[in-house]
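Technical note accompanying the year-one report. For the benefit of new consortium partners, we illustrate the data format agreed upon in the data management plan: each record pairs a sequence with a structure-token string. No post-processing was applied to the example shown here.
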Amino acid sequence: MAKILDQPRYKCALTAMQTVQSITGAIPILHSGPGCGGKLAGGAGSSGHFSFNIFPCTNLSEKEVVFGGEKRLKETIENALKVIDAELYVVLTSCTSEVIGDDAEEIVRSFKNADKPVIYASTPGFKGNNYVGNDWVIKAIIEQYLKPAEKKTKGLVNIWAGLPLHDPFWLGNLRELEKLVEELGLIPNTIFGHDRGIKNLEKVPEAEFNLLVSPWLGLENVKLLERKFGTPFLQYPTIPIGATETSRFLRAVGEFTGVDKEKVESIIHKHESEYFYYIERFADVFLETRVMAKRFVVVSDSQYSLALTRFLVNDLGLYPAKQYITDDAPLKHRKQIKEYFKELNYEIEAEVEFSSDGYKIHEEIRNTEYYGYPLILGSSWEKKIAKETKAHYLAISWPINERLVINSSYVGYAGGLKLLEDIYSVVLTRFN
């Protein structure tokens, strides 16, 4: 029986156009109706050199639904190649084009001798959301665009983390991960954002290693890269926030890539010394501000629910209530994701629920005893329930309506301090 999804936390697979858009020099070609691009764009920071307002689109109408839209797609690709100055064109399909049976793959294949590369990904909304849509686009790029490298570049590490544009902190997180990897003496390579794009995309097969920072998103693609280019990968299941997790991250990456242990420990010691200097300075705020309960709840995707839970337990000494994962993670990954929530300090384990139903989540939060004013980390959908429960509330995941995130990040040692600033800036307002 069909259910109404209250308070959506994700969009349909065609939103993978944002993944393409985030690769400088690449542009999506939408084989869809006229409203999809604008409806799916949403969120701050979605414009750029190529914005959804100028994405080539077949604008499917009733005519194409009845007689097919393959001719329309071919014409759109031909014209896009003429008038759009891009380096890579990615055709994305929609519910409409897939239901009527258009063979977009065959149409794209007819452009194999075009002056610029044209590839294809099947991204109808009925097949999945924008998390898996992102993976399908990256898979299409690996299979249809990337070529084996003549040689590997020593120390080059491809970094894969987060969902471009949909994750408010996606770009800041990538840049901080680059800095951490670079400190180890390695060469980070990412394909998203300023001054990366196609030139970095073409370096992907040259890398010695792939580093996946995610509990499940991107896992199938790093396995594909290993099969196709012989590149081993390390999966670190959570973005590192704060001292405990960032130090573990550096040790794990250092061990996997063969960095000298003394060098790794020296880097960690330097950062932890500074980190705990700031923690000690404001220890009275963290320890004596009893207005906040010790129990917290995170309502976000797999990545942030795990990362924030680990930070709040391991670094701040808070205790997790039930944590909610809203990205509709594939069933085959859920057991392992639950295990990650058992790897907390002090033998603490967090109960996890996979749910996209905002109504149900809020009902459970409303009926949970937090023994004081709880801390709720989530999206703008949680603002109302936070007010009802008199909680301290911070928006950290899509949709976010009340804060602007340009290049901020919660990754690393500095990221942990930034998160503490944001949380306690909210807590302290209760005194005003």
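Partners are asked to follow this layout when depositing records. The radius of gyration is 22 Å.
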